[in-house]
Amino acid sequence: MVLYFKARPEVGDYTIFMGIDKHENEELIKYGFPEDIWFHVDKVSSAHVYLRMNKGQTVDDISEGLLEDCVQLVKANSIQGNKMNNIDIIYTPWTNLKKSLSMDVGQVGFFNPKLVRTVRVEKRINEVVNRLNKTKVERKTDLKAERDALHANEKAEKKQQMREKKRREELQRLEKERLADIRSYKGFMVPEKMTSNRQIASASNSFKELEEDFM
User: Fold this and answer.
1) Spatial distance between the Cα atoms of 96 and 94, rounded to a whole number of angstroms
2) Where does the NFACT RNA-binding domain start and stop, copy by copy (predicted)?
């Protein structure tokens, strides 16, 4: 089961979620989205909390209010961390999470430690935690199916983009050909290269005169 929470409305439409146990965390680690941001209490056992950003957004787009909701939820879901003041919460993009066969269930590392950020949480803010808990929804989710659907949509979007690109390129090619034809036609129509009816008649008369001279 996965627990879903809604962030404060004023920061936008964002969903925060976490697994109900460490085995569910394994599924979240495995089937995350590129837009997901992972949160955890530093050096203390806690829930693995995720924030799903909007497509195209990064960790730099997390507002102060949205960050507070995430870190308060992480702190509240740590048996030890919930009792402590001045604790550090670490967070990083899901794409930076590293999982190896030698790691225990729910344990993760990082591909690039420099991408891991730290925020100090002074104390639990009950008002924030209670507001988030009122939005909590527990749902059995097929995480693999969600990821597969995401990949299918992305593949379809890329195909559509390629079709649009080819269409634009074909239109540009046809337009270039049309302009080239116009320029070529104009080259034949310049006054210096054109022969008038009068010139044709004059040339015809001259030819007749030459014929008469030879007769």
Assistant:
1) 5
2) 1-110
- Provide the token pair at 120: 């100090």
Cβ neighbors of 132 (< 8 A, separation 6 or more) are 5, 6, 7, 16, 69, 72, 73
Give residue 59's Cα distance to chain centre: 13
User: Cα(207)–Cα(174) distance, rounded to whole angstroms?
Assistant: 46
Q: Are 29 and 97 in contact (CB under 8 A)?
A: yes
Please report, for residues 13, 58, 134, the alpha-carbon distance to residue 9 in angstroms, rounded to integers and kept in the order given.
Answer: 7, 19, 13
Q: What would the two tokens of residue 186 be?
A: 């104009």
Task: Tell me the one-letter amino acid at 170.
Answer: E
Q: How many angstroms separate the CA atoms of 191 and 65, rounded? A: 74
In degrees rounded to 5, what are phi and psi of residue 125? Answer: -110, 100
Q: How far apart are CA 58 and CA 56, in angstroms?
A: 7
Q: Which is more confidently placed, 2 or 193?
A: 2
pLDDT in tens, 105-128: 878 999 999 999 999 999 999 999
3-class DSSP assignment, residue 144: helix
Q: What is the pLDDT of residues 79-103, one digit of tens each?
A: 999 999 999 999 999 999 999 888 8
